[in-house]
Amino acid sequence: MIEKQHWHPVAQSGQVAGMPLAVRLLDDDLVLWRDALGDVQAWADRCPHRGAQLSLGRVCEGATALECPYHGWRFAAGGQSVHVPALPGFVPPATHRATVHAAREAHGLVWVRLAGQRDEDDALPVFEAEHDARLRKLNCGPYEVQTSAPRLVENFLDMAHFGFVHEGWLGAREFAAIEDYRVEATPDGLLATGCKAWQPQSSINATAPALVEYRYEVTAPYTAVLTKVPDAASVGIEGYREFIALFICPVSPEHSRVWFRLAMADFERDDAQLRAFQDTIFLQDKPVLESQRPRCLPLDLGAELHTAADKASSFYRRHLKARGITFGVC
Q1: Which among 238, 267, 282, 283 is positioned nearest to 138, based on CA atoms?
Q2: How many CB atoms lie within 10 A of CB 283?
Q3: Beta partners for residue 28, in sequence order
Q4: What is the pLDDT of residues 208-239, one digit of tens each?
Q5: How far apart are CA 289 and CA 64, in angstroms?
Q6: C-alpha distances in angstroms, 13 versus 10, 39, 78, 138, 179?
Q7: Nearest residue to 147 (alpha-carbon basis) of 313, 29, 296
């Protein structure tokens, strides 16, 4: 499964503290824990001795080992078994080890890759605004959604629903027309530019309706970034830009965990206000997304109807098919 070779977000960094944390990715159960060096360990949530869930155990010995809840076997960072209580003098061989996966932290999240070498230097999905010190960064979510990761990405790329799902916020029925825009391939996905939408309130900063220019970029199969450029007069902040990254954990083919990472020139509103606006918008999307059938995204372009307004999503479907993506699609 090629998806196992990609990096996926599985939890917020702050969730991995003193206790092991159970998560699920691509239908695999994992356990996360933080070792004595502060690094996140990501292992299969299964003790190799008798198959118990390691997430039910405890981090011990000064965060140098994870202890199985069943027989107390201890595994050091890196997965090697280092202690078997039933045989105090036994030195576990190199084959006695937990299944270990690559883990990294970025964008306030823990990312895991299920296939490939742990130390292989593969890049995480890009979010260029992350490195702009002039912008404030904030994560929103997670949101649990009963649909596939590709359905969520396609919704993120779709402007034609604004006037109906987000009426009075991101759109209006009487201004639902979508002007032509450009879509092109990139090494990691696609780039859509020249996207424009009339919006009553494009963001929490908006003080007046405005025509907003959108730029969409798919940077990994289940990751996308949106740049919003409203008319300056509509927000009252000169040179205002807003960047929103969509990071999705494909829990199962029809269940996803979603985070949005904001990068914006707003240092006045508190975190709760910014998150409340994002909650309002996404929770309008959620019931519609969960109503779609099939929940997995059809890659056969003949399975659903398409128009020129859907060119970004049609391009995205062709991209997934060309990349050999099979998880969350049909």
Answers
A1: 267
A2: 10
A3: 25
A4: 788 888 999 999 999 999 998 766 556 566 66
A5: 43
A6: 9, 10, 19, 13, 40
A7: 296
